[in-house]
Write a structure and sequence with these properties.
The structure holds 2 protein chains of 2 kinds. By secondary structure, chain A is of the alpha+beta class. Chain A has 6 helices and 41 strands. Classes of the chains: A alpha+beta, B mainly alpha.
Chain lengths: ~550, ~220
């Protein structure tokens, strides 16, 4: 009897879903409930996590591989990992905020939904937001470190603060300009007037256009954050000095600067909330009005050295002390800072990362993360209710329900010593389980047993060089061959083929079969069937299960 | 495993396809040309069996590599003998592929299931009309791998040895699912299916006795 109970327990453990995160709320704010909490280990997080409509993205950072590999994670709203991208070379403290870009097209090309990542080894990557595949990447110069400042994303471009300058790229990865400025660190980019503005470690502010870069000396010190653009296109700069910091107003027309206020060490990233510029440092949180001239409206003693966030109209900024937590302030119409107190959490520690916030279906959400690399999601709804709000996947629910029923019956049969009957239910359970996970199993298995051939094996020298490093799809009809190149980051053969066919105005008929999707005809031609190769190697699984690299060459041949 | 949609077997022209169909049909009827199959009731029952399993195969196409024909061929081979087992395998393959899709694979599938039927006939999974489940489970797993291997042979000639080995390796999850499906079908329907065939045979024997008795009296 005891052995049967052990079997039952083992089965129950196998079937129990792995629950990640805490189930109880520890939030001080009564209206918010903890949804989940993920500890990324010994690494730290110093930039704000961000959310798109589909996922949450966060980056971890480290100063040595022993501490952990710098990683960008994508999570779903239940806190489950969707994908991760690592860069073991980027161990110089990654502090560039991630940026999400919606798919689009412009004069210089098209792009999918992307996550833009600047690494401290100088690498800049555009990753597919849905799977982390590299859409394109751009290597910038590194001198001790590479990209550490915040990028600026505009409609069709991204401007990157590199270690020694500034690069502007179209969102399809093509370079618009690259100019040298001064050495920078954590120096973000702002656009105001007709120029991009960026500071350096010698107190210079640089204006950059597609004609070149011009230096404007502000004062001895370091400009380490993106200047704040004012409504009149002038700028506010929080310059770090040896004795603390100074806030300057910079007139972009006359290129003259004027001091606003001296303040504390290690400035936070200044920002605009309502009509006021908000600055912070190791001593003060300030509100500055620049209606006529820039003057300080209010100051509060607070230590914050990172990102300042506007969370549903409330200023939230991480307290960069061992006590941690987040200072909360409201700002009145006349610029007065009204303290709402400090919100503390169980895992509080030093922190510089801001707070991501959004609302959906009348539910407010917050993402909090600190140097301890504990990412927490809070929402104004209890976690059990949140699951109900999320899109229901009925087939999955039904399969899980069936599996639970079957395994329960198996257990009952075992208890009643009806082993043959128990086996019947157990084998049915296993079959359903395998069938339900079959697609994933096939993909993983194929990756394991198939040795990828290099794309060069299938490269045709007659193709344009601009197709190098991109995905190429060839349709070999009996009468003609249609080639499509320059495709980016399709996950599998079928996806790439559909995109290529779409570009060529061809229809691909696909049917569902018991072994995956099956291409019946291309361009209306069925022939004796179609077979594909990837980099010259015959496909061995359904096209939907055959994964592609970013430079794979797919050839469909009419039989 | 063959229908993994990357590699195709040799392409068949219409004439070659027709020849294969004729050969398969000829084989099926030759196998059926035994004395007991001259009775209309036997033929009708056999046709019903073939039609229902063919239909079941077509209906179960959305389920990845779940093949009810394998277990049916195994049990029919064991219960009705190798000749009728092979005839059943060939006819079911041809009829169901007529709906699902015909090609060179029909030949290999027919061979594969015929071998499963012969395997069943040479086994002792049915003794005194009763299915030995434990033995059948073993044969069910073996049949899945045997059938999938035979069907995989169809790509020979279009790939080299390494390519064939890779193809076989890629097919292992499909083989496992086939085996698991066979176990499930055996566990749930094996005895019922076996009894259904046994009853048919018993009725036949009774009928034969009645007819023999009538002839003797007259």
């Amino acid at each position: 009897m005891r052995s049967k109970l052990v079997i039952l327990v083992v089965i129950a453990i196998i079937c129990l879903p792995h629950v990640n995160g805490e189930s109880t709320s520890s939030a001080e704010e009564s209206e918010y409930f903890l949804q989940w909490n993920i500890d990324f280990g010994d690494v730290y997080v110093s930039t704000q996590a961000i959310a798109s409509e589909q996922a949450v993205f966060v980056r971890t950072s480290s100063s040595s591989l022993a501490q952990g590999i710098p990683t960008v994670y994508s999570l779903n709203f239940a806190g489950e990992e969707l994908w991760r991208v690592q860069n073991p070379n980027s161990t110089f403290q990654d502090m560039t905020k991630l940026e999400f870009v919606k798919s689009g097209a412009g004069d210089c090309g098209s792009w999918p939904d992307m996550l833009l990542v600047g690494w401290s080894d100088g690498l800049f990557q555009a990753l597919r937001a849905d799977n982390g595949a590299i859409v394109w990447q751009h290597q910038t110069e590194a001198a001790s470190w590479g990209i550490t400042g915040n990028m600026l994303v505009e409609d069709e471009s991204v401007t990157i603060p590199t270690r020694k300058g500034i690069d502007k790229l179209c969102l399809d990865g093509s370079i618009e300009f690259t100019y040298a400025t001064g050495f920078g660190w954590r120096n973000g980019v702002t656009f105001a007037g007709d120029s991009y503005w960026i500071g350096d470690e010698e107190g210079n502010l640089w204006s950059v256009t597609n004609q070149g870069a011009t230096k404007h000396f502000i004062a001895l010190g370091k400009i380490r954050h993106a200047p704040v653009q004012l409504p009149n296109d002038n700028l506010i700069i929080h310059l770090q000095t040896d004795s603390g910091s100074t806030v300057y107003h910079f007139n972009t027309t006359s290129t003259l600067s004027s001091m606003v206020v001296n303040s504390g060490y290690s400035p936070a990233m200044p920002t605009t909330i309502g009509d006021y510029v908000i600055t912070a440092d190791s001593q003060y949180l300030r509100s500055i009005s620049c209606e006529v001239e820039c003057v300080v409206r209010d100051s509060e003693s607070f230590r914050s050295n990172g990102e300042i966030s506007n969370v549903f109209g409330t200023i939230m900024l991480p307290q960069n002390t061992a006590d941690g937590g987040y200072g909360q302030y409201e700002i009145s119409t006349d610029g007065e800072l009204i303290s709402l107190g400090i919100v503390n959490y169980a895992d509080d520690w030093y922190g510089t990362a801001g707070v991501e916030s959004w609302s959906f279906s009348d539910v407010k959400y917050k993402l909090l993360v600190n140097d301890n690399a504990n990412l927490k999601m809070y929402a104004t709804i209890e976690s059990s209710n949140l699951a109900e709000l999320q899109e229901s996947d009925w087939p999955t629910i039904l399969v899980i329900l069936s599996a639970l029923i079957l395994i329960s019956i198996t257990s009952i049969q075992l208890l009643q010593e009806r082993f043959q009957s128990a086996f019947k239910f157990f084998i049915l359970f296993m079959t359903i389980l395998l069938m339900f996970t079959f697609g994933d199993i096939i993909e993983a298995w194929t990756d394991l047993v198939t040795e990828d051939a290099p794309a060069s094996d299938a490269w045709n020298d007659e193709w344009p060089e601009s197709w190098l490093g991109t995905q190429i799809v060839v349709f070999e009809f009996k009468q003609e061959t249609v080639v499509t190149g320059g495709l980016l980051s399709n996950d599998n053969v079928l996806e790439a083929s559909l995109e290529a066919a779409n570009q060529q105005g061809l229809d691909i008929d696909v049917i569902e079969s018991n072994l995956g999707k099956y291409v019946v005809s291309i361009g209306g031609i069925t022939g004796e069937g179609w077979e594909y190769t990837v980099n010259g190697q015959p496909g061995t699984v359904s096209a939907e299960f055959s994964d592609l690299e970013s430079d794979s060459i797919v050839v469909w041949k009419q039989l | 495993m063959f229908q993994s949609y990357g590699i195709h077997g040799p392409v068949l022209g219409p004439a070659a396809g027709l020849v294969i169909d004729i050969i398969l049909l000829g084989l099926a009827f030759w196998m059926l040309a035994s004395p007991d199959m001259k009775k209309v009731s036997n033929i009708l029952t056999f046709v019903t069996l073939v039609a229902s399993i063919s239909l079941l195969r077509v209906v179960m196409i959305p389920l990845p590599n779940i093949q009810p024909v394998t277990i049916a061929a195994l049990i029919i081979g064991a219960q009705l003998g190798a000749r009728r087992g092979v005839a059943f395998a060939v006819l079911v393959t041809m009829i169901s592929n007529f709906i699902i899709g015909d090609g060179i694979w029909t030949l290999y599938q027919a061979i594969g299931w015929s071998l499963v039927a012969i395997l069943g006939a040479s086994s002792t999974i049915i003794i005194d009309g009763k299915l030995n489940l434990n033995k059948t489970f073993g044969y069910a797993v073996l049949s899945a791998f045997l059938f999938d291997f035979i069907v995989s042979l169809s790509v020979l000639g279009t790939v080299n040895t390494i390519g064939f080995m890779t193809y076989l390796l890629n097919g292992i999850p499909y083989d496992l699912l086939h085996a698991l499906g066979n176990l499930t079908i055996t566990a749930w329907f094996g005895r019922w299916f076996c009894e259904a065939i046994t009853k048919f045979q018993s009725m036949e024997e009774i009928e034969q006795k009645v007819v023999d008795g009538y002839v003797t009296r007259t």
